[in-house]
Amino acid sequence: MRIARFSIDGNVAFGVVEGDARSGDGLVLDIIKGHPFAEFERSGKRIPLDKVRLLPPVLPNKVVAIGRNYAEHAAELGHEVPEVPTAFFKPSTSVIGPDDPIVYPSFSHEVHHEAELAVVIGRMCSQVPRERVADVILGYTCANDVTARDVQRVEDQWARAKGFDGSCPLGPWVVTDLDPSDLAVMCTVNGEQRQLGRTGQMVRSIEDLVVHITEAMTLLPGDVILTGTPAGVGPINVGDEVAVTIEGIGTLTNKVIKRG
Ligand code: MG
Question: Please, which of 94, 120, 137, 175 could form a disulfide with 167 given CB 3.0 to 4.6 Å?
Answer without folding.
Answer: 94
